[in-house]
Amino acid sequence: MYPWEAIARMVQAQGVEFTYGIGDSHLQLFAARTAGLRAINVRYEGSAPFMAMAYSRLTGRPGVCSASTGPGVANMVPGALEALYACSPLVMICPAVSQQTEGMGEFQECDQMGMMRPVTKWSVRVHDINRVGWYVQRAFSLAMNDQPGPVFVEIPNDVGGDITHGIMVDVETPRFKPVERLRTAGDPDAIARAAELLLGAQRPVAIAGNGAMLSDAGKPFREIVEALGIPFATTPGGRGILSEKHPLALGLVGMYRNTVAKEYLKNADVVLAVGSRNEAFQTHRWKDLPEGARLIQIDISAAEIGRNWQPEVPIVGDGALVLGQLLEAVGPRGGSHAGFESLPRIVQLAEDKRRLTEEVAVECIMEERPVPAKRIVHELSAVFGDSTILVNENGSQDSWSYFFPYYVVGDNSSCVPVAEQTCMGMGVVGAIAAKLAAPEKNVVCVTGDGAFQMYMKELATAAQYKAGCTWVVLNNSAFGWPKHYQMETVGWNTTSFDVQSDFEAIARASGCHGRRVESSSELRPALQEALELNRHGVPVVLDVPTGLDMSHFKRAE
User: Fold this and answer.
1) Last residue of some domain: 328, 351, 374?
2) Model's pTM, two decimal places?
């Protein structure tokens, strides 16, 4: 058996359904002929890890991608960087030039391990092909367990073979047992202390971070907040843990908070944080922990405990297991799951949210030209509704999609955000992987024109695989964030595009449907048309000219 054939079979045995890369990589070649595995061949290697991240986010399984030697591997470095900060379990298996000519100037020879070490949990070279099963198994184990993250495995051509140069190697069928995800519970004494804090709280608030999503903690999170009547907010990575239509939902924290979330967190006496580093964007640069509040921090990694705010009760463990332990410790002393809505603070919360929702609706009904980004996002939320996967970029205008209730992540819905590095284009290509992973869901990416242009080369990939998703391009002909700061500081900018691409024409030339939307009255019909086309496997690009409105961030301060 060829080594790369064996590797493809091991990937499939792990329960992974897709591999991502350019078709010239050895793994993609054999994945295309492996039952139960589907090779998604992209136009650019840099798209592969981003697509693998989106797949992992939505399925809970590791994402697998590959690239050819040298520049192919180098193009995957930004994706590995984003995956490291997203704690996304990513397995990258790539060839390397032959060891027999290493250092002699071989074609595409470079220090791939040196490039990948700073942006992975583990980077390793396979020296003996008879141990390939051990290496692949170890890669999946490290990617999935403790704090998840990306790993890189390189296989030199003289070890694994190089079909493109006629170098063939045989290997006995490796033994491979699918890697299990290992979960750890919390210290019982810490659990008891946390339960007492929560039971005694008058104004508790819970925060669900990315780690809560990675641990699949939706069910126990719902049970604990409903049992104790705890209003909850999320980080971008925790968004989707529960529907934002839930009576206890506050929206997002930190940079993306609304006025209601701001007040409830400001006045909290106990904060329960699950799976969040409490980093800069999630805390308004560390200003948001309410004075005098007592913090319970739950995280899978001891290294994240107290990284920023010092918790009164630190608990190291899997978020889902720890929340289950907390629920058991609270026991009958907690409230009824059906009775939390009658609590005075929750009655007041309902009124506060109703008022906020009405204010936003009135704000977004204004007729302006170009169409304000907040109105575009608000209309999108109304049309796509429940059972939708929102895939985010992180530019100046697409950030409106992070703000509840401009956009509401509803019932049976998910969110695929970028991580702290906010590599531009992750959401653009992530939308394709999201639709392939969950074809029954609506999928929409809200992106600025800057990020879209970096990765619109993959529109043809979406058309090829009939990935019926929609890109809403908020087009202000600039890189909005730099333009804003340049104009605020020195009064001129160097990021505006004097020549802008015709996204409608590019979409059609790539096998997708393209439409330019220039007025508010066109917006809803265009979104409805996009949704209907998506249901027939047609990808859609909506090019919507907009301005540069940064009021969402000023309002959150």
Assistant:
1) 351
2) 0.94
